[in-house]
Specification:
With 554 residues, this protein is mostly beta strands. It has a single domain, classed as 8 Propeller (Methanol Dehydrogenase, Chain A). The chain is 5% helix and 31% strand. Strands 1-15-14-13-12 form a five-stranded antiparallel sheet. Strands 2-29-30-31-32 form a five-stranded mixed sheet, with no helix packed on it.
């Protein structure tokens, strides 16, 4: 069953609240009081309250100006360094900034509380001006170990902040809603079972345990950057394969989820990326050729660690989820009804364990700009490099078939081909290259979320190449080899594009159709999280040592 709901007319659900820690999507519409459209247009000012800044997830910041082009963090030679603060030993999610606070997930390798030793998932709330700790949320590791909760990875989820509440996915595959004030207000709001209730501890308002309550089986770790529209919270659950990397223990569990942001009650869910396995087992009575389903693009391959995006093409709301099967899906936000789907892999692609194949899923986040959806495919970075694809999809297009499929026919990626008249394809970039090209492919696997501004699209691939394309046509304008792999995304702000790499070098490009590298800044450690800007400052995270830097004029 692809869509599950309880009492759709009332949009109610019977799931009780529990701690958040995983990847899931939730939605709640209490009637006309807060229309989706109004909520989506909320002006966040100069804050950066969720990954991507807005519900369209475009990594473009039009509010900040006067930021430094370069800086120096070397002791004794500091330049434009306001402060730095050690985190744990890893912090992938990147800083979220709202209400004078910075929220960032990490691990417990730099304990702030001597009463809390050992490996934990940690969500930090820091003072924006000083970096000092305000409070921290502590989450124990799951007993199953690395199959569900890889050691020392901490919390990878970038939270979303609205008013005095924060929502994120814990390492325990829970959706967490917490009081942004922590216990500093002297009140224990919401649930009252926290073990730690001191002035520097988190005050949990509600939890939804996706493992216990929804049977989700996260592969290696649970992570998603939740999205709020109106009173609805949307997440991807991280449901995936088991330790053998073939079997899916819980194909009936949701991949996509919509919950009431106020209490965590489930509104609707979808298991589309794994529903074919449920149906095939019903028909066969048991054994199913899982690899065949995967190669047909009908089944999730590994894990599900991307994020949802919201749009209103022609005034019609749609919530979009990237699935672990390599498809993107558009749903009606209030009901979970499928509107369309699009396969982001060639039909002839094949998935092979360890990243040796050509079929991919998603690590990057989809972005919406001018009613177009942009997303690149990739894999777990442990699977190394490989051929990739970057897509631009027309989300105003209504499907002309019963399957609601907007995918190009066969492997013909010409949007003007007569056979693709009903496709949502606007352009495609990537694929295998011929012998006359400098590399084996035009665009590789990516973990990068795109930034689109002024008709220009910026992105990167895991192999360390930065690309600038015409956002409307997909034509390549320039590229740049950073000389090192990258997990980071391109970030546009103040007429510049920032991106870091595994060698610890932050590259700063001038915005434009001609390549101009303004600076290469040595941060002395890996840069995996994407830089962000807020309040006249640039915030960056490095790994080994894992530090948060605030950069700008004091």
């Amino acid at each position: 069953m692809a869509i599950r709901g309880q009492n759709r007319q009332a949009l109610a659900a019977a799931v009780t609240c529990a701690v958040l820690g995983g990847t899931l999507a939730a939605l709640y519409l209490p009637g006309p009081a807060r229309p989706l459209a109004d909520a989506a247009r909320r002006d966040t000012g100069r804050e950066w309250p969720l990954f991507g800044g807005t519900v369209q997830r475009n990594l473009v910041n039009l509010k900040e100006t006067g930021l430094p082009v370069s800086w120096n963090i070397e002791p004794g030679k500091e330049q434009n360094l306001v402060w730095s603060m050690p985190l744990g030993s890893k912090a992938y999610g990147g800083p979220i900034i709202a209400g004078g606070r910075i929220f960032v997930g990490t691990n417990n390798d730099f304990p702030r509380d001597p009463a809390v030793p050992g490996d934990k998932g940690i969500m930090l709330c820091l003072d924006e001006k000083t970096g000092e700790l305000i409070w921290q949320a502590v989450h124990d590791k799951l007993p199953a170990g690395r199959v569900n909760d890889w050691p020392r990875e901490g919390i990878c989820s970038s939270p979303v902040v609205e008013g005095k509440r924060i929502w994120y996915i814990s390492n325990r595959c829970e959706i967490i809603c917490a009081d942004a004030e922590g216990f500093r207000d002297g009140k224990n709001d919401g649930v009252a079972d926290e073990a730690l209730t001191g002035p520097k501890n988190a005050d949990i308002l509600w939890r939804l345990d996706m493992i216990k309550q929804l049977n989700v089986f996260p592969h290696n770790l649970a992570t998603c950057s939740p999205l709020i529209v109106g009173d609805t919270l949307f997440v991807i659950t991280s449901n995936g394969v088991d330790e053998g990397h073939i079997n899916i223990p819980q194909p009936g569990a949701p991949s996509f989820l919509a919950v009431n942001k106020n209490d965590g009650k489930v509104l609707w869910s979808s298991n589309l990326p794994s529903s074919s396995l449920v149906e095939a087992r019903k028909k066969s009575g048991g054994d199913v050729d899982i690899k065949k389903l995967v190669d047909q693009g009908k089944l999730l391959m590994h894990g599900q660690w991307s994020n949802p995006v919201y749009a209103e093409p022609n005034g019609k709301p749609v919530i979009i989820f990237p699935g672990g099967d390599g498809w993107v899906y558009g749903f009606k936000p209030d009901t979970g009804d499928l509107l369309w789907k699009f396969d982001c892999n060639p039909k002839k692609s094949e998935y092979k364990l360890g990243g040796k194949g050509t079929r991919n899923d998603f690590v990057s986040t989809p972005v919406v700009w001018e009613n177009k959806l942009y997303i690149g495919v990739g894999q777990d970075p442990e699977h190394d490099k490989g051929v990739g694809h970057l897509w631009c999809i027309d989300i105003t297009k209504a499907p002309a078939n019963a399957d609601k499929d907007l995918t190009p026919v066969g492997d013909n990626f010409d949007p003007k081909a007569p056979t693709n008249k009903d496709s949502g394809l606007i352009w495609h970039y990537g694929g295998l290259a011929g012998d006359d090209y400098e590399r084996n492919y035009f665009f590789g696997r990516t973990m990068s979320t795109v930034a689109v501004h002024d008709g220009l699209l910026y992105t990167s691939e895991y192999d360390g190449w930065v690309h600038c394309l015409d956002a409307r046509t997909g034509a390549k304008l320039w590229d740049h080899d950073m000389g090192s792999d990258t997990w980071s995304s391109t970030y546009w702000v103040d007429g510049r594009v920032y991106i870091g790499n595994e060698a610890g070098k932050l590259h700063v490009f001038a915005h434009g159709k001609q390549k101009k590298l303004l600076a290469t800044i040595n941060m002395k450690a890996k840069i995996r999280a994407t830089p962000v800007a807020s309040g006249g400052k640039v915030y960056m995270i490095t790994e080994n040592p894992c530090k948060l830097f605030c950069l700008g004029t004091k």
